[in-house]
């Protein structure tokens, strides 16, 4: 029980310190320390800290757990909190550098290409170009190993290998993309090893086992079909072996490695023997060892039964004369002859350079002997693609990081030593092959000239079978290792949850074996098997490995250049220039190998990256790309001018003021919908709200409010930032937001808020005061203000208007906001099909025809499409209705200014004033007007006919009666109400059925005593309209006719 508890504790300690969001209050260190609490508090030395012991444990109690921290088991990473109850005790790893890193890397790097293709690459590309190919590839892997060592020694790397390092260094998007590419590379490597196994079996061990027999001229096609059949059988067999007993695969790894090492030793032994005793080649090349080829040998080789004698004699006598003069030099100095490349077309004869073979008749060519034909066209870049897989496998050590005694020491040492060893083997083999074997034999890919034996086997000592059997078992073992490792890599990516559609592959058997991932891996492997050609599969996996290595180098370079505080690798022999060089070399090799494969691999990685970004990677791993973003943001913010931007760069940077209810939920979600519809300007969005109280008391409510607002922003697709402010008064909180929201040059320039619908309610009589003060503050801060009235009637992001108008009532010019906003709205799908109409008001002295022409020209220069209409509004006498509205407004104002009465008394007083007022003015027209003016329920439609009728009806009696009520100081209110009533009538007449009406918002009075009257004016101005956006400009131009 105690052991299990300790294991869990260690596990959660990893969770706590890797930043996955488990709060310290829930840490099992505290929970498990409950029993020791009394002992902890016995001493008085730490009494000063005893109140914080719940959240901050004593260091003395943690040091033992810190020092003895062990990695989690293979395939288990820090996010698997739900499975902690099933976890077994972690075994103490005992593997050192040699067994844990050096030998696995050696086994993975040395393999099929060395035995099957290196001799052919040397013969085709020549010693010099082969040396360049191998040096480039080895330099690439060495630079990558240096970068990998730096990342691997920067803290504890739980088992997960290269995927873990890349994803935690570059973030979930790059991690997922490169992780899947690395998985595909490992899977195709399995296919390549299986194809190599079959090639050795059918070509060198048992050619008679071929199912499809070669007919005349169709040897290649028959071989590919044999590859497909045998490959499918072997992959099924290997998948079953991996499924049933993966532990046996791991145990056999050392046996397979022994086969590889014995084979290489046999090659070097054979080279030493060749120096004293040249190899004894069989019939096909026996003449190379004789200064005077015997007549019997040449006639046996070139005079084939069934051919006419003239052809036989032609070839026979030509070869006699050629080999009498040339063959001795070829044997003594093959290295000089093999220095340069001999590239050829598909189907051409393998022949000695500068000495073309006799063009015999077609009968000789069809007969096959004595000619060997090339099966593919060869060129330098293709050979790079075929060779590169032979240097992959450098990640084998880091993949076992969970099983190492000291991973931070073993991974750099073991990996770099393994790469140095294998690089020496490859480079020395190139020189030795070029020096010991004749060029035409090297170019004979399948050893047809040496009786169908492996070409490298001709050098082996004591027998060619050492190489054949060794290479067969090493390729088998490498294939099994790929089929074992690839599903685990896929399982790790699936369990991270960053690529949703592969999460099913995170499940497996009860013991954690990845069953579904194994099935997918076998299926992808089968694709490589169906390609059937080793030379075609090799460049595919080269692409994926190169991409993986490129991002390892990028991760190291980014972390080094950013100088993040957490970047403290124990491995000191790295530099960002080396990482950058490695990254450049990887990218160059990708396009050298095959530019179209490179583009396809990059497209696949790009699609995965964008998919993870689109789905929203919610993981925060403290990665370098996040750090890079922060550095870039800081650099950009410092470069952005702190002053106002040029008019051409102006865009609405919104501060959206939300109201929250008692449950901290947003009262008007449509305000965020409208915000996202306005965001065609691609500007900043800050969503702010105010909680009343003190921060210490409201801390929990603040977090809850922020979560609710962010959740709603996600639903409404509003891209921006959330800022919740706690203030003793709502009024001060709004002021703080207007003053301090934003950072540097990225500050808001426009405030968007909802109209306070309940401002007339007596229990909410401060809401209008806050609103008017907010209007004043935005004006003082030189910020634009947008007020959405009837916001709950505004469309959601899912709605689509198929027709209708966006009407702009341009009364006064305050910077052009009224022109710009409809243009931005019409970029969104909701408003796209609405037409824009612009109305302006002409007074008595204005030339309305000229105004219309000027406005049309102005819109033409602004590149805006809109209908233009000039509305004439003449001076009329003030109507009785206007006086009645003003009187009601004055009476209500007096009511609100009375001394502080109780809530009930205030309501009674308001009712009495209303009743008295209604009784004293009970003419039919006034009654109708009062009824029409009741807000909330009855909408007033004030038409021109009604206005004219009202003007002349009982003009002398009513108007004179009202005029007596008001003295001179109230005439300004009457005039304002007159403007509101008249303008409302005109707007209703033209825009009552518009989808949205934009109006200039008049400013509040300079005298604060009339604030409540200002609210009444705005209410009358917008009465009867469904959706209204009141716009108040910032006083600066926001739209220009210039380019």
UniProtKB/TrEMBL annotation:
Annotated transmembrane regions: 96-118, 130-153, 174-195, 229-246, 253-272, 376-396, 416-442, 462-480, 516-534, 540-562, 574-598
Keyword line: Cell membrane, Chloride, Glycoprotein, Ion transport, Membrane, Phosphoprotein, Potassium, Potassium transport, Symport, Transmembrane, Transmembrane helix, Transport
Lipid bilayer topology: Multi-pass membrane protein
Single GO term (MF): potassium:chloride symporter activity
UniProt domain SLC12A transporter C-terminal: residue ranges: 785-1043
Xref: Gene3D superfamilies: Amino acid/polyamine transporter I (1.20.1740.10)
Main location group: membrane
InterPro entries: AA-permease/SLC12A_dom, KCL_cotranspt, SLC12_C, SLC12A_fam
Annotated ranges, domain Amino acid permease/ SLC12A: 101-277, 377-655
Entry's Gene Ontology BP terms: cell volume homeostasis; chemical synaptic transmission; chloride ion homeostasis; potassium ion homeostasis; potassium ion import across plasma membrane
One GO cellular component term noted in the UniProt record for this chain: plasma membrane
Protein family per UniProt: Belongs to the SLC12A transporter family. K/Cl co-transporter subfamily.
Protein name in UniProt: Solute carrier family 12 member 7
């Amino acid at each position: 029980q105690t052991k299990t508890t300790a294991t869990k504790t260690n596990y959660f300690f990893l969770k706590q310190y890797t930043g996955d969001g488990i709060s310290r209050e829930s840490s099992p260190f505290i929970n498990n320390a409950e029993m020791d609490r009394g002992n902890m508090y016995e001493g008085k030395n730490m009494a000063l800290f005893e109140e914080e012991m719940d959240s901050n444990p004593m260091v003395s109690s943690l040091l033992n757990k810190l020092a003895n921290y062990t990695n989690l088991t293979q395939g288990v990473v820090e996010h698997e909190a739900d499975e902690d109850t099933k976890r077994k005790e972690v075994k103490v790893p005992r593997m050192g550098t040699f067994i844990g890193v050096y030998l696995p890397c050696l086994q993975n790097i040395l393999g099929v290409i060395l035995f099957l293709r290196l001799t052919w690459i040397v013969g085709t590309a020549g010693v010099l170009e082969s040396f360049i190919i191998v040096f480039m590839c080895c330099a690439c892997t060495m630079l990558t190993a240096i970068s990998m060592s730096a990342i691997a020694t920067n803290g504890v790397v739980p088992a997960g290998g290269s995927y873990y390092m890349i994803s935690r260094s570059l973030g979930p998007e790059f991690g997922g993309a490169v992780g899947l590419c690395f998985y595909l590379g490992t899977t195709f490597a399995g296919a390549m090893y299986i194809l190599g196994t079959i090639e050795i079996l059918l070509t060198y061990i048992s050619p008679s086992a071929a199912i499809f027999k070669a007919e005349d001229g169709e040897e290649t096609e028959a071989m590919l079909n044999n590859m497909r059949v045998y490959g499918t059988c072997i992959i099924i067999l290997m998948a079953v072996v991996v499924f049933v007993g993966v532990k046996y695969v791991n145990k056999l790894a050392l046996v397979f490695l022994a086969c590889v090492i014995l084979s290489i030793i046999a090659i070097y032994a054979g080279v030493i023997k060749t120096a004293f005793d040249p190899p004894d080649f069989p019939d096909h090349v026996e003449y190379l060892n004789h200064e005077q080829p015997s007549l019997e040998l040449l006639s046996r080789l070139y005079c084939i039964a069934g051919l006419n004698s003239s052809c036989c004699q032609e070839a026979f006598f030509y070869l006699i004369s050629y080999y009498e003069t040339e063959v001795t030099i070829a044997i003594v100095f093959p290295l000089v002859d093999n220095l340069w490349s001999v590239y050829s077309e598909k189907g051409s004869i393998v022949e000695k350079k500068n000495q073309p073979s006799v063009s015999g008749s077609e009968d000789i060519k069809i007969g096959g002997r004595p000619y060997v034909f090339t099966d593919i066209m060869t060129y330098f870049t293709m050979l790079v693609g075929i060779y590169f897989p032979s240097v992959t496998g450098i990640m084998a050590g880091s993949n076992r990081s969970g099983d190492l005694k000291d991973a931070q020491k073993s991974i750099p040492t073991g990996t770099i030593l393994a790469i140095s060893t294998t690089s020496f083997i490859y480079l020395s083999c190139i020189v030795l092959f070029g020096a010991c074997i004749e060029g035409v034999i090297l170019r004979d890919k399948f050893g047809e000239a040496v009786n169908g034996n492996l070409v490298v086997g001709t050098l082996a000592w004591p027998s060619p079978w050492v190489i054949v059997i060794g290479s067969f078992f090493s390729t088998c073992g490498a294939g099994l290792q790929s089929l074992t490792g690839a599903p685990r890599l896929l399982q790790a990516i699936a369990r991270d949850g960053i690529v949703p559609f592969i999460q099913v592959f995170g499940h497996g058997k009860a013991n954690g074996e990845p069953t579904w991932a194994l099935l997918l891996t076998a299926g992808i492997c089968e694709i490589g098997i169906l390609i059937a050609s080793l030379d075609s599969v090799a460049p595919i996996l080269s692409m994926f490995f190169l991409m993986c290595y490129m991002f390892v180098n990028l991760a190291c370079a980014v972390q080094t250049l950013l100088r993040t505080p957490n970047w403290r690798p124990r491995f000191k022999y790295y530099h960002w220039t080396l990482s950058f060089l490695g990254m450049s070399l990887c990218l160059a090799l990708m396009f050298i190998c095959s530019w179209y494969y490179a583009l396809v691999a990059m497209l696949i990685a790009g699609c995965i990256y964008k998919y993870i970004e689109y789905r929203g990677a919610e993981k925060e791993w403290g990665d370098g790309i996040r750090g890079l973003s922060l550095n870039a943001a800081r650099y950009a913010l410092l470069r952005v001018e702190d002053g106002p931007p040029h008019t051409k760069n102006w865009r609405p940077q919104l501060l959206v003021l939300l109201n929250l209810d008692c449950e901290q939920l947003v009262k008007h979600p449509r305000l965020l919908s409208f915000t996202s519809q306005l965001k065609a300007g691609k500007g900043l969005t800050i969503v702010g709200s105010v909680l009343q109280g003190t921060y210490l008391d409201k801390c929990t409510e603040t977090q809850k409010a922020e979560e609710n607002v962010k959740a709603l922003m996600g639903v409404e697709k509003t891209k921006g930032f959330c800022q919740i402010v706690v203030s003793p008064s709502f009024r001060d909180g709004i002021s703080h937001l207007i003053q301090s929201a934003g950072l540097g040059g990225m500050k808001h320039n426009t405030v968007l808020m909802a109209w306070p619908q309940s401002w007339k309610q007596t229990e909410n009589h401060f809401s209008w005061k806050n609103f008017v003060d907010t209007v004043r503050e935005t004006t003082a801060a030189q910020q634009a203000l947008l007020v959405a009235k009837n916001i709950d009637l505004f469309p959601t992001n899912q709605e689509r208007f198929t027709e209708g108008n966006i009407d702009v009532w341009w009364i006064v010019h305050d910077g052009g906001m009224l022109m710009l906003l409809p243009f931005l709205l019409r970029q969104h799908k909701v408003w796209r099909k609405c037409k824009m109409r612009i109305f302006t008001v002409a007074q008595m002295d204005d030339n309305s025809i000229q105004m219309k022409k000027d406005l049309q020209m102005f819109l033409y220069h602004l590149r805006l499409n809109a209908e233009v209409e000039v509305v004439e509004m003449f001076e009329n006498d003030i109507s009785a209705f206007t006086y009645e509205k003003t009187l009601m407004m004055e009476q209500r104002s007096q009511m609100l200014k009375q001394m502080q009465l109780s809530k009930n008394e205030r309501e009674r007083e308001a009712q009495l004033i209303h009743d008295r007022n209604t009784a004293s003015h009970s003419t039919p027209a006034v009654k109708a007007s009062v009824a029409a003016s009741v807000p909330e329920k009855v909408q007033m439609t004030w038409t021109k006919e009604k206005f004219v009728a009202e003007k002349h009806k009982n003009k002398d009696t009513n108007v004179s009666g009202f005029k007596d009520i008001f003295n001179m100081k109230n005439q300004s209110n009457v005039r304002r109400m007159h403007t509101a009533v008249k303008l409302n009538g005109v707007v209703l007449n033209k825009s009552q059925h518009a989808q949205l009406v934009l109006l200039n918002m008049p400013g509040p009075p300079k005298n604060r005593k009339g604030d409540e009257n200002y609210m009444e004016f705005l209410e009358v101005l917008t009465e009867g309209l469904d959706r209204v956006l009141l716009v108040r400009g910032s006083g600066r131009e926001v739209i220009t006719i210039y380019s």
